[in-house]
Please model this.
Amino acid sequence: MITPLRLLLLFAASSWLLAPIAVAQEAKPDPGAEEAPAEVIDPKVEFKKVLKTITEKECYALVQTLAGPEMRGRGTMTPGFDKAADFVIAELTALGYEGAGDKGSFKVPINLSCLVPGEDCAFDWSSRTEEVNPAKVEQDFVPVLGTAALAAEGEAVFVGYAIDSKKDKWVDIKSRDVKGKIVFAFTREPRADDRKFKRFEGPESTRESSIQRKAEAVYEAGGIGLVLVPDPGLVPEPNLPLPGMVPYVTRGAANPQGIAGIVNMPEIPVVSVSREIAAKIFATDLDAYAASIDKRLKPKLLEAGPDARVSFTVSLRSGSRQAYNIGAVIRGSSSDGNVVVLGAHLDHVGFDMLTPDESLRTSIHPGADDNASGSAALLEVAEAFAGYQPQVDVLFLWFTGEEIGLLGSQEYCKDPLYPHENTIAMLNMDMVGRGEDDLINIGGLWSRPEWESFIKKVHKRSRSRLKMDNDQGRDLYARSDQYSFHQEGVPGLFFFEADLNKNKVYHKVGDVAESIDGKKMARIAQLFAATAWVLAFEGERP
Model:
């Protein structure tokens, strides 16, 4: 769920599912034999059986994957989000689902405004044995958010982490080493992933290890440019520059000056290059170099030598790029074109670099509760429904861009796969894995007494152990994806864990999978599935 602060910052800147509800025979029929009629199953009889397939163990396991370190917080339009999306698509494919996009694709394209590299953005390097080598923008290197449109050329030195912090007993950037040179440095700080290491602040990155403070340290020591290299713990892949820089998705028109005004970088250019490129420039195994610094806990300077030259130019411009939501569909038996939409946002905040202190920190925010829990629960519902045919279509959507202002759902609602007047309801799960294990809030019932009565009947029939507190959460309703549908006149119900004030790891690095409550997830997913089943499979209406 998006935070109000984040909004303010961003403003500145067929398969077997087609069988009838009962069950198709897997064996191939004899072409000469008469077809046996399909065994029709009463959806009211299947109701409890379907709900029982949603389990605590599976919910917990799915969150472990979606909030794992390799997903790197699932920032919109980042490699981490793509990995999470690939996992969801693989699960849907294994279940036999039909993609809701063009030609059966699971990716439903949308266009988002973002910052992209300017036309003159470039990075070149040469050495005694290598001629000029141009790096590829967005593949080998990226400009860093907030940096001025500047250029630099000169000798290169690798200082380690570019941290000047007497408080943390770490100073690895000195004027005598870097004056007049281009400074390379790892992201974050020594032993950043060691929770027992006391010198820095554990999993919370320190102010001095932020990108803005590294750039200030380089500038104050006389360096003429900063090149950030992702440390191996943050980005294991050696061929990637720092994710989350460009394209940088914004709410509304992208504005490079707006981001620069937020971050307040010094007057030197800053880029990020992959470890693979940096390793060639310094002719050094940089994974081993990082490991030696972390082991010895002593700074270690690398010099590329006077024959090695690096030059780069930084520029950013406003633009747009194609992103995607994930969509899967079960076709209904009716030809009336109606649909029940089931959703959850897959994205989270990635490294959440636009932090309240505006310093571009680089800590992974796993987003286990927000919203790996809802995305995992929606996968469990998809598994429960697989193999059954509803009366009306059921559309599953995993949204992108929710944390930036409900962008994925807003773009869907501008160009929906089904007309809004044909959308019976949109049910959304966002943050369903923390808090009291027997408490749920379903937002959106305050002005819909007929829906409240309907939900209470489903709750009773499903024998849910959840206590419904549907009075709270009014201030949160506009901060998740059902609100985009609500604005179009579609009933949007928000299935939520309740009492956000008690969630101490909301939008923090401590929102990890290990502490997720799989039992609560399963209970909420079961009630969510029960509601969807009664609407789509049994055909009941409030």
